[in-house]
Amino acid sequence: MNNQATFKLSRFNRELSAAVAYAVLLLLVGIIAPLFFSAGNLRDLMLSNAPVLIIAVGMTMVILAGQIDISVGSQFAVCSIAAGMLAKSGLPMPVVALLIIIAGGLLGSINGWLVSRLNIPAIVVTLATLVAWRDGLRWATEGAWVQDLPVNFQWFGLGQTAGQVLIVTASLAVLLAFVWILRNLPGGRAIYAVGSDAEAARLGGINPPNVTFSVFVLMGALVGLAALLNAVRFSSIPANTGIGLEMKAIAAVVVGGVAITGGRGTLIGTLIGVALLGTIGTALTFAGINPFWEKAIQGAIILAALVSDIALGRLHRLSFNRA
Questions:
Q1: pLDDT tens digits, the chain, 323 residues: what are they?
Q2: Smaller CB count within 10 Å for the chain: N or C?
Q3: CA pair distance 306, 267, nearest whole angstrom
Q4: Mapping DSSP to helix (H, G, I), strand (E, B) and coil, where does residue 251 land?
Q5: Would you report the helix, strand and coil content of the chain in percent, each value rounded to 5?
Q6: Burial of 262: CB neighbours in 10 Å, binned 0-12, 13-18, 19+
Q7: How many CB atoms lie within 10 A of CB 40?
Q8: CA 187 – CA 115 distance, rounded (Å)
Q9: Residue 221 exposure: Cα atoms within 13 Å on the Cβ side
């Protein structure tokens, strides 16, 4: 019984560690800079991190399956520019939204096909597509921003308040939907199984290449959705948008407790990771600290999360062997 209780608790050690770190951060900020908790600042934080959360949900699926995708920033840029161009062509916004999600899924399917069918390592494939999509977009646009967007593009034509509510609600809906999928559907359990041991999953009747292909397609589709929700917040779309986004998503997933080797972790942990890393920069500004330290602090947190992951894994194996 004690071993079972210890095992159940150990399953959530990573999420608890991230939650404690976030609580400590909020406590310190509350003491040093209480204005951080103003309604306007909290609203801006949720809006700016909503697209990151959606992409982090997709990245969680990819990493749980034992893969990685570092091309999401370039996919985000392609989908953002495409959304603006389609809107300027006169298409209704629901059609634009559908086409951009499909476009993102197609970009993800290229990664998925190369990884799952040709067995090329995901880090190699997505590094190549990161460069290809970014440079291809730079060539196609010559670095020009998409401007003079139609009135119904910004905030989906709903007005700022309703548009903001829609963006935050959509990101939380995506999170909750995939929490349910991972817990209740065979496909969700297959992702964990393939990430834990692909050969054992195959012997159990799961097709690992199909699972791998599917998570990359899901990743691309969610990038498309995130790009659209981010683009409608502004009156123009820069061609260099999305730079560094892949690192934000991967960092949030790892800090939230998802094992970088796959097979372990939860989307609730990912949510905590997004909130924690997304808060640091703004918290430093309100505390009067040079924002230059944001990346250094994020790097230290990521390194601590990775070290903790290794240590907890060794402790779990030691406890299991003793039992």
A1: 455 444 454 566 778 888 888 898 899 888 988 888 999 999 999 999 999 999 999 999 999 999 999 999 999 999 999 999 999 999 999 999 999 999 999 999 999 999 999 999 999 999 999 999 999 999 999 889 999 999 999 999 999 999 999 999 999 999 999 999 999 999 999 999 999 999 999 999 999 999 999 999 999 999 999 999 999 999 999 989 999 899 899 999 999 989 888 888 999 999 999 999 999 888 888 878 777 777 777 777 777 777 776 666 666 555 545 55
A2: N
A3: 17
A4: helix
A5: 80, 0, 20
A6: buried
A7: 8
A8: 19
A9: 13
pTM: 0.92
Residues 6 or more apart whose CB falls under 8 angstroms from that of 220 comprise 58, 75, 104, 105, 106, 107, 108, 109, 111
Q: Which residues are 146's β-sheet partners?
A: 237
Q: At what angle do helices 160-184 and 186-196 cross, to 10 degrees?
A: 70
Tokens of 184: 């209740």
Looking at residue 112, its amino acid is G
Residue whose structure tokens are 């034992």: 66
The whole-angstrom separation of Cα 102 and Cα 37 is: 38
The helix or strand, by DSSP H or E, that contains position 188, with its residue range, turns out to be helix 186-196
Q: What is the 3-state secondary structure (H, E, C) of 86-131?
A: HHHCCCCHHHHHHHHHHHHHHHHHHHHHHHHCCCCCHHHHHHHHHH
Which pair of tokens denotes residue 2?
């004690």
**What secondary structure does DSSP assign to 26-57, as a single string?**
HHHHHHH-GGGG-HHHHHHHHHHHHHHHHHHH
From 167, 168, 145, 142, select the one nearest 154 (Cα to Cα): 167
CA distances from 310 to 116, 192, 193, 230, 257 (A): 27, 18, 20, 35, 11
